[in-house]
Amino acid sequence: MKPKPARAAAVYRTYREVSKPGSPSLMTRVRATPRMIGDVMRGRYDGLGKGKLGLMAMGVVYMISPIDLVPDFLVLIGVADDFGVFLWLMASLLGESGRYVDWEQRKVVTGHVEARPQEG
Asked: 107 to each of 15, 60, 92, 102, 104, how far by Cα in Å?
């Protein structure tokens, strides 16, 4: 886990990336996340390794798990570690999903579009 200043800097970089003109919007990134995970698992998208995806999954499990490295009854410290994991997870997901959306758009522009099963 990164030290607090590094986590704050990563969050700020992600905010700047999400709010930069011409970059995918926040909702576009959020909607792309399930597709990105599916494409990583199927081996279609290699911009995100399965190892990092596994770390993200472990971050989700850590946040929802009743077992904690730092107990939540130590109010400030116990909540801060969960919040740090949350910040890292959101920064990572938003950054990676933005790169994924760019990758999808490049595929469409270059004509290398794979047939995607219809949803619904």
From this structure: 26, 30, 22, 9, 5
Is residue 88 included in any domain, yes or no? yes
Count of domains for the chain: 1
CB 48 within 8 A of CB 96: yes
pLDDT digits (tens, 9 = 90+) for 16-42: 777 788 888 889 999 999 999 999 999
Nearest 5°: phi and psi at 4? -55, -45
State how far the alpha carbon of 106 is from the alpha carbons of 29, 63, 113, in Å: 16, 34, 9
> What pTM, to 2 d.p., does this model score?
0.71
Low-confidence ranges of the chain (pLDDT < 50): 115, 117-118, 120
CA–CA dist 57, 59 (Å, integer): 5
Structural contact between residues 88 and 59, judged by C-beta atoms closer than 8 angstroms: yes
Q: How far is CA 115 from its chain centroid?
A: 25
**30 Cα distance to chain centroid:** 9
Q: Which residues form the domain of 55?
A: 25-107
